[in-house]
Write the structure tokens for this entry.
Amino acid sequence: MLLRSDPPDGAQIKTPPARLVLQFTEPLEPRFSRVEVTGGAGNLIALTPPRPQSNDASGLVAALPPLGVGQYQVRWTVISIDLHRTTGTVGFTVTP
């Protein structure tokens, strides 16, 4: 299960994030994990493949391109090391 995200779900932020961090309750199999970010119009935002957080196998990090003002939705699918599959979404808004 997702513990937290950075930016947090529902956040309204003025500075666009340079990266996305997802923290889960169990260590993950990163090669089977997927993260997609879409803009308000449903356009897919290109980002780097998620990688494990350097200090924690239960976290994923993905670099984001420069984002403009608008709403963004993050969709994730991860598989934990005990092979449980979990999916979900979080959203954030970049404000002027």
Observations:
- Residues 8 and 92 are 7 Å apart (CA to CA).
